[in-house]
Amino acid sequence: MKKIKKKVRLKRLNKFTILVILLDLIVIDGLIVIQNDKFKAFWIPTAMTTMSHQYLAYTLYNEDTVNKVMSENFIEQNDEEMNLDEITIGSVKENTHYSNKYEKELFTKDSGNEVYKTIRIIEQKYKAWLIAVYDPSDVELAVSSKLGKAGQSVNTLVKNNNALVGINGGGFEDLDGWGNGSIPYGAIIKDGQLIWEHAGGSGGLIGFTKDHKMYLTTKSPQEAILDGMSDAVDFGPFLIVNGKTSKIHGDGGWGTAPRSVIAQRKDGVVLMLCIEGRLPGYSIGATMNDVIDILLRYKAYNAANLDGGASSTLSVEGKLWNKPSAGAEYGGRTVSNAWVVTNKQNKPATAPIKNNYK
Predict the structure, then answer these.
(1) pLDDT of 164-181, one tens digit each?
(2) 37, 75, 201, 334 — which has fewest CB within 10 A?
């Protein structure tokens, strides 16, 4: 009997010892991982680019480490004066030789839809939707009817403006991650009029002139209007100006996250990019370098980052089209404004096939 008891006790001791060793290994591995420079460069900017989860950066690292990593990951925005003469609207030539598969994909229109095309992008780390709008005169800014009091979902802004497609625009006050889109940051220009101005602009004015050319500028709203700006929101950074990309150091300091971007090609075609993220097992998100890579594939000549994170929302034919990181159950987060496709020329358009978030 004594021998049996001894064996049992030794068996239990071995199991416990193994468990302790495994836990030690996990802790050691964890310590090794968090000290890895690549992990720091991923974790810290990704946490700091959010409004409500910045504490995650300081949970693993002290303030000096956070500041050091952020100082190594930043964007040198290309602020050169735009050459709008390079944009030749309507210069698209159909049924010609395409320069690459992306060009062919862009101009192989959906049957019965002359206004826009939806393109699905699936990469290893993220999934995205790209909307190509063939006539830039179909793009305009939609603003919440409750501006200053409450925002509205992109779906609502699309429906209220009789639009076909919409993507969220500029940023807004988001205290503790619970902002409802009521107080936009920076300036909003609508139909050539400054309708809103508030502190907190993020990089410059992103918009379109009266002749439908994308205009990115760090000038004041009043100066931009004199230059011909018709609709604009305040955000950034600018990613491509006059065909030249901004310089990205590290991941740019914006981490890996959901993204919304608006761009224009030299032939006037407008590109709306919505990248899904913060959804482990489905789509983690993209860095600014990832975004620029996509835009260059489709020959964007000018491009700017819009509000991202939980705000990144795409609406197509009155339906929530992307899978947002928050708010999907009620049609997407409420925002201050959105870029919408209104089909002014009454060209026929049909709804694309239901995406089912595939």
Answers:
(1) 999 999 999 877 666 789
(2) 37
Query: How many angstroms separate the CA atoms of 62 and 67, rounded?
Result: 9
Which amino acid is present at 338? A
Interval 59-95: pLDDT, tens: 778 887 877 877 888 899 998 999 999 999 987 666 5
Q: Any bridge partners for residue 133, and if so which?
A: 116, 270
Contacts of residue 146, defined as CB under 8 A and 6 or more positions apart, other chains included, come to 152, 182
H-helix segments, 167-282: 221-226
The residues near 125 (Cβ < 8 Å, ≥ 6 apart) are: 256, 283, 284, 285, 286, 290
Closest CA to 233 of 343, 86, 338: 338
- Cα 321 from Cα 214, distance rounded (Å): 24
CA gap 90, 104 in Å, rounded: 17
Q: What is the DSSP string of 275-286?
A: EE-SBTTTB--B
Number of DSSP helices (H) and strands (E) in the chain, helices first: 8, 21
The identity of residue 308, as a single letter, is G
pTM score, two decimals?
0.85
Domain boundaries, the chain: 2-73, 75-341
